[in-house]
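Hi there,

I know you've been waiting on this one. I reran it after we fixed the sequence typo, so this is the corrected version. Both the input and the resulting structure follow.
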Amino acid sequence: MMRRQLTIIGAGPAGLTAAIFGRRAGLDVLVIEKGMAGGQINITAEIENYPGFKLAGGMELGKILRDHAEKFGPEFMECSVESVSFVDGNKTVVTNKGTIETDALIIASGASFIKSGCKGEDTFAGRGVSYCAVCDGAFFADVPVAVIGGGNSAVEEADYLTQFASKVYIIHRRGEFRAQRSIVDRALANPKIETVMSSVVEEIAGQDMVERVIVRNSKSGKRREIPVEGVFVFVGAAPNLEFLTGESGLERADNGWIITDEKMETSVEGVFAAGDVREKYLRQVATATGDGATAAMAAYEYLSNEHYLRTELLEPEQVAVFFMSSIDPAHIALDRAICAHAASSGKKMITVDGHMNRRLREKLGVTSLPALLELSRGKKIRAITVNSIHDAEEFLG
């Protein structure tokens, strides 16, 4: 069994950026990758909205990111993650090549677009078939395109595509949209949009590039060819989290995305999520790299804090701990006075920012601040709520 400080699941833009920042911070980093580095961008023919690159192929950008990460020397392991578990603070990743125990974990396994399943969809992927209007919309200036889907994303992206395309057909298998009424009304008011309802796309066809879609009306059975040069599929996306079980303890949104705070930390202490796998507003290369940088530095802070707390707080035979809030001036003043008293009386005392260390507070049962605790090898012996320096002096003796 291997043990690492920081393990990153996924070698897309988020995971590779996390590897760069983690190694630069001096952490022992293991990156688990499945297949080609770059993740979802590998199926994008051209990328023109990643800062610093006026135009780059998806596979090209993925290789550049991988090469950049390699410069800092993280360990790469090509394998599939079968399961993860978080029990009593221990984080374990089981792969088809062995088991890894890790002090901190970043899940950056990305997401996959749900395909429509029609004939020609895979054939023309990257050659007219796209799953991202923000990524590829500008490549379809002044030509007709089709959007497959009828939910919020499909209708909103269809409206967005009218900035570029000469005409946008929304093809939906139902007789009415599933999208919110306000979104539908705004889109239908756009003269560039034409709806093709109660219809399914049977085939995406063309020579080297997309030239048309063949649509069948589900009520009449009649077929129709619509000339388009692009097809945008918006029937949904799903996070790549097959290795997670309902017992993992990770809080997830109704659609499966991992919920994080602004530091990318999940509901499990020491476990972070970055990139397309988490619940977020925008899924792009630029936002993924930002997530990866944030997650790595938050993991570094977590590991540093854990080391400090373990050696100074949880291992000593006896130690006094003052929990306060660093954003409360009264707490800060009280901390100074208590520290001075402890130093003069030869007492070992540690100050912990309870505002930043919420989970440690919960572990030790600290419900209100400021508070003084006496610990013995991590176990609470006694505790009081501190209202004045007099309370602290009596407690410390």
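Quick highlight: Residues 311 and 365 are 20 Å apart (CA to CA).

Best,
R. S.
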